[in-house]
Amino acid sequence: MALKILIADNDPEELQALKEYFSAELYQVETANSGKDVQLKLYQEKYFALLMNWSVQNHSAGQVLSFTKKNMPGLKVIILLNDLSLLDESADQNIDSIKKMGAHQVMVKPFERKDVKSELEGHQSMSELMGHQPRREGVSDELELDGKDEDFTAIKINEFFSAKSVLFDVFIRLRENRYVKILHAGDTFSKERIAKYRDEKKVQYLYFQNKDRKKFIQFNNYLIDKTLANAQIPTVTKANMLKNVSSQYLEEVHVEGLKPQVLEQGREICESIFQFVDQDKKLHHFLRDLHNLDPSSYSHSFLVTLYVTSITKQFDWQSPQTIQSMAMACLLHDIGKTKIPKELLLLRPIQMNDEQLALYHQHPQLGFDLLKDNKLVNNTVKQVILQHHETYDGTGYPAGLKGSRILMMANIVCLVDDFVHLMLDAETSPVETLKTILVDKEMAKRYHSSILENFIKVFVDPEKIMKDRTLPSNSKVLNKKAS
Length: 483
Ligand SMILES: [Fe+2]
Ligand SMILES: [Fe+2]
What we know:
By secondary structure, the protein is of the alpha/beta class.
């Protein structure tokens, strides 16, 4: 059954247009043309969300908000505002005050209807998404169509997972700008159809439309949560799922920016990465034997997140919350690079001339600037992003900070960032790469020694560490209970 929403607007044309748009997007839509009408309808029926123009009359939007806040705390309310000048400054009205009155979001014109839809989807939990999507028994016919390549995202066919019914349209690519829709949103998932393409037609990738990326991330987050709890599923499968969802997430960050719902999805991914690091007994094998690295910047960010989370966990005093916000800083550590010309990012720093290098060295500051006014991101995350290329010996950038003036957290990211680049450039194993860093005195000076020590530990079976109470370096490890 489709999700039911109530739309209220005092402009009949706008109301009709919104109704048509959201009905076409498979919502069940009811409308109201006054605040009083809204309250009556809310009283009579249960809705998932209310989209209400701030200018509704005969019960103002403010009156309706105080009614919904008090009586229906679960209802998502999105306020549509024609113009900021409609707010009553003398009464201290502003977007924040409307949110305090009970609105989940305030959208000021001009906005596109798809932005309102995206906002609505951001509030849907997985069970709402799965439970209310329209379903058809069986599978619809395949449909060949034109589509721009830049509007589609490829997923390896073996890494594509679905629920009982498909949450979004699934395609295969025939040639440039030409696709076949092989499963329609709402269809029963057909393993046979996927298998036909994989086995008979040797198709390697399935595609979804970029507009469905949020659903893809949401579904995969949900799936990962279930998968992580299953000890039978191999570590590598779990890591691949996390890598895929992180990559799609970073793409979403690039396209959508750090909107509240985007940050929320990031938090869920970081929670999963922490859970993976915390619970997978064989993770040390995976971290030791990693190979066939994908050189994309997204998988770089994922690897940095995974290793940093593993190292940080070795510091006994870190709380899960700190480790998770650390993971968030890692996922976003290079976000400043989105403000640097793309051509420059194709070069490694060693290939850049002085001018290019100076520009490249601004990326930590640019990342910090992007986040500095964002109240939903904590200060440590911002500082870690700013300092992730500062080094312990003071040779880093942008500020050339030295020693204890650098956050320990930022120094961990710095080490892992160097480590991942080195591993990829030299095509050596993780253990070999770390050895290279340890024996190079100049390089090792860049990091606090306790971080290097804890890095070694991530490659060792944790049970063995506890049993022997010694490290390969013979440093003592305190028993957690005794400390
Ligand atoms: Fe960086
Ligand atoms: Fe990086």
